[in-house]
Amino acid sequence: MGAPRQRTWHGPLTACAIAMAALAVVSGIGLVVDERMVLGEGVWLKPFKFAASFGLYAITFAWMISMVERWRRTLWWLGTVAVAGFVLPEISAITFQAVRGVRSHFNVATTLDESVFMVMGGAAYLGWALTLALGIFLVVQRRVDRAMAWAIPLGVAISLAGMSVGYLMTAPTPEQAHALTGGMELATIGAHTVGALDGGAGMPLTGWSTGAGDLRVAHFVGLHALQVLPLIALWVRRVPLVIVAALGYAGLTGLLLWQAQRGQALVHPDGTTLFVAGGLVAAVLVAAVAVAGVGAVVAPRRS
């Protein structure tokens, strides 16, 4: 028998993650020394948040690709295109607008701003497609660890759903649609806040609205299923519990989207939202206890 293949992490994705960490540090410094504001937030807050998110995305896929035995060349190329066609164009556009001191998302005030926003939109669509492709090729691997074999595709699926929430933000609001119908030229098309204008009171660091619905909450939570579910699989090591966790996480993402679309801030849930959230928590706990009990009964019979 030959020596086992040495596992190497995907180089471009790993380098991308390191670059994003460096950008996060630079952006953090910018938040301290640069007093410029955009919609009530420091101009460097968005590059900071996106650098952190893209860094997690890159290092997660670099790790996942290092574990595969099949389709390695295809996955390597998909990962490289994800860096060059998705992460770098989008973070570059966001950082470019931060340097200029203007809004990056939904900004169509000038030809340059509209072009930058179109670059971001194209990169996001490509990123969605590449993430789907990476997920498909990761699924068709032979794995001894069955819990991880379930966690990766479920995490990718929920992450894709979370990414898709971003597309809801690009649609004109009812007020913007009415203005466009009337022939008005707008400086902004799209919004992440529901029930109020972007730029109102927000939570520290995240900037999520405290006075209205905010689609970014569900976007963030769903997107990072890619990291959360594999971590849960490493912890519980059982397929039924991973499935329960995935269903609960998907339910949480859906709940947050529903709450935001009703114009309701994350920190001010009404009775209906609390009731549904309580039902979700109860369902997940009951299911987890049930599958854990079944496992405890079945395990001794196998000994």
UniProtKB/TrEMBL annotation:
Range of residues in the leader sequence: none
Membrane-spanning ranges: 12-33, 48-68, 75-96, 116-140, 147-169, 217-236, 241-260, 272-299
Domain of life: Bacteria
Keyword terms of this UniProt record: Membrane, Transmembrane, Transmembrane helix
Record-given protein name: Uncharacterized protein
Organism: Nonomuraea antimicrobica
